[in-house]
Design goal:
Layout lengths: L5 E14 L6 E8 L2 E7 L1 H17 L18 E14 L5 E8 L10 E6 H16 L20 H4 L3 H5 L4
Parallel strand pairs: 1-6, 3-4
Antiparallel strand pairs: 1-2, 2-3, 4-5, 5-6
Helix pairs in contact: 1-2
Length: about 170
Amino acid sequence: MPGAKNDLGRAITLTADAVGDPGSRRFRLLVEAEHGGACLWLEKEQLFQLAIAIQQLLSTMDQPSSGEQTSLPSHAGDAYHEFQVGRLMISEEVRGPILNLLAKDQEDGDTGDPTVGTLVDINQLKQLSERALVVCAAGRPRCPLCGTPMGPEGHQCVRTNGYHKEMVDDIPR
């Protein structure tokens, strides 16, 4: 894969996941590919935006027929990468319905090549997008009035009582 420092090859599995309790969860993409694997840590907003971008991309592409399957490799390599993602990219590959998923380590800054890359097919991207939206929606419920996430103890809604607890705590007395 041109451009990636570490080519994981063709993805065997690709999924989104969250670790921890709602309100203090960490989000990640888990990749198992023919030349290794990766745990790509993301912010919730990055995961949500990836899911939306995938849906928009797929809506503009020619979809393969439902019976058409691309063969998946059966062996995962030994290389393993884990890092906080600074940037995610999806680019088209010239081999039919296969795309490059590239991730750049946040510590590498904005210059240089992506840290890892893997080849994914359209069906894998569609499943990733659906799973990512489910993971993002599984957090704390939002207040229907102000949109603030509500914890188990509830929250003091700005729209019902005229102040927000965090804002009031910051006012000098």
